[in-house]
Amino acid sequence: MSAGMFMLAGMQFAQAYNQSRAIEAQSRYQSSMLDISSRFANLQAEDAIFRGKKEARNVKKRVRRILGSQRVAFAGQGVDLDSGSAAAVQQSTEYEAELDAIQIKNNAWKQAWGYRVKAFDLSNQSRVTRIAGRNQAQNTLLAGAFQASSTAYMGMESSAKKAASMGAGGY
Questions:
Q1: Measured between alpha carbons, how far is 133 from 138 in angstroms, rounded to an integer?
Q2: To the nearest whole number, what is the mean pLDDT of the chain?
Q3: Which of 63, 56, 50 is nearest to 103 (CA)?
Q4: Nearest to residue 167, comparing CAs of 159, 5, 155, 3?
Q5: Residue 149 predicted with pLDDT over 90
Q6: Contact 148, 2 (CB under 8 A)
Q7: pLDDT score for 58
Q8: CB 104 within 8 A of CB 52
């Protein structure tokens, strides 16, 4: 009977070992998926900044075309381009365009900041997942070892009682 208990103890430990390896593998997988998501969030941040800079350049290009049209219109009416209301209109157009470009860049930086915070959070989640998986795997292995040793002890105790009863004339 005790050999069967030792076999059962070995199987319990093997099951705990396999279960702990599965837990670690799952946490490594989840961690790697979080790391990938973190990298994508950083790429999104870079893309947001790139798109913001590009859109700001496009605003400035459009304004240059508008300014050219304004200058042509004023010149066609015989207005002095460098003084008076014509100069004020052109300055106002340039000023508004610069404000628009700054706002576009600012919005892009804010969007990028959000992506970077997300990337940082995902990276931290990855670390925590890895640590928690390792701890859970160790706890599973320890619990399995205790269960196996308890089963083995019960087997030894049962064998000792059986031997004691046989030795006391119990055959």
A1: 9
A2: 89
A3: 56
A4: 159
A5: no
A6: no
A7: 96
A8: yes
| Residue whose C-alpha is closest to residue 118's, from 48, 51, 42, 50 | 42
Q: Residue 137 carries which DSSP code?
A: H
Q: Which helix (H) or strand (E) holds 28?
A: helix 2-76
Residue linked to tokens 């994508």: 40
Residue 50 to residues 97, 100, 110, Cα–Cα distance (Å):
19, 16, 13
Nearest in space to 41 (alpha carbons), one of 142, 137, 130, 122: 122
Range with the lowest mean pLDDT among 74-83, 108-117, 133-142?
A: 74-83
Token pair of 75, please? 């010149």
The better pLDDT of the pair 59, 161 is held by: 59
In the numeric block, the tokens 């702990």 are attached to 20
Read off the amino acid at residue 152: A
How high is the pLDDT of residue 137?
92
Tokens of residue 84, six digits: 């008076």
Nearest CA among 143, 145, 139 for reference residue 27? 139
Identify which of 109, 155, 143 has the alpha carbon closest to the alpha carbon of residue 8.
155
Residues in the chain, how many? 171
Share of the chain above pLDDT 70, in %: 95
In this predicted structure, the answer to whether residue 69 has a pLDDT above a threshold of 50 is yes
